[in-house]
Amino acid sequence: MSTAWLSLGSNLAPEANLLAAADALRARFGAVVFSPVYRTPAVGFEGPDFLNAAAAIDSDLDPFELNAWLHALEDAMGRDRSGPRFSSRTLDIDIVFYDDLVLKGPGNLELPRPELKHAFVLKPLADIAPDYRVPGDGRTLAEMWAVHPDAATPPETDALVLG
User: Which residue from 29, 62, 97, 108 is spatially nearest to 21, judged by alpha carbons?
Assistant: First the structure.
């Protein structure tokens, strides 16, 4: 078994979609640790605010199989990949870390995930795994969040609870 840390987001019916995603993760992987849910503005395009969270799972799938499983879940929940890369979405789940693996490709799989630089990815992960050391960087998530430009004004916590 390996541990994977995931970033979840939605800005189309986000409450319903994140709750359904949380149920699907629990049904497939058992116990899941979820961060608080944060409300953040869209990044890279004009659109409704996102609800974002992080999750930690123990997985029997390798990172490529897990990535495919997550893409199938996104598709099952109505994810439309035909538009621009930065656009509104029903569900976006990315593997940010998989144990301490560092890899790039094939396809869009990159570990650690480069979106870790964004507060909407880093803050929820720092909530659930503050002492995790980022592969290739060496700092803990708590250390990274402490020096993040948005640390003084963290994202707004939403009332939605996933776990």
Answer: 29
